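Tutorial, part two.
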Amino acid sequence: MSYKKLISFIGLCLIPFITLLLCLQTDMFHENMTYVANQLHYHTWYQLWSIFVGIYFFIMMRMIYQQCFLCPSFFRYLHVLLLLVMILGAFVPYDMIKFPWLSSLHVDLSLSAALSYLLFLMIYLFYLYQRNFHLARCAISYFFIGIMMIMMFFIFQGKITGWIEFLYITSLSWYMVYLIHLPL
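Running the prediction step on this input gives:
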């Protein structure tokens, strides 16, 4: 099995499956994955999952940027920083009663990691738009359909839930697999 097929299998099947298993440990439509992380018997699994997904996203972002030769050293350092922020966000505890400052840090780190991945993908799509308009038009459409779907659920539910986190992780991993298979 080639490296690209293996990384595609992980993004299309393994990450969504593991994410769904973690999300199903709670009421996906009312609680988020932090609730699962606060359960003692799932805490280690949640942290291992965050490391796995963080490393996977790091590898995928590197592959996406390298396929179009858009990988200056500045982006390399930002990708490493983003990986650390994502993993650190999972390791910082969330308990508003005992640790209000750390709980705020947890939310800030998690949200900044999620938004940073979207920003990095928009930078790539802008580059792709300049390089190949026809490929970019389809890729940009898929990107914004995914964002609108997640935003619709966020507005409908009024908070970040396990369902929204599952949609975000799954759609982002599927979208990254789609991008590495574009014929550039």
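Residues 3-180 form one domain. In part three we will examine how such features are distributed along the chain.
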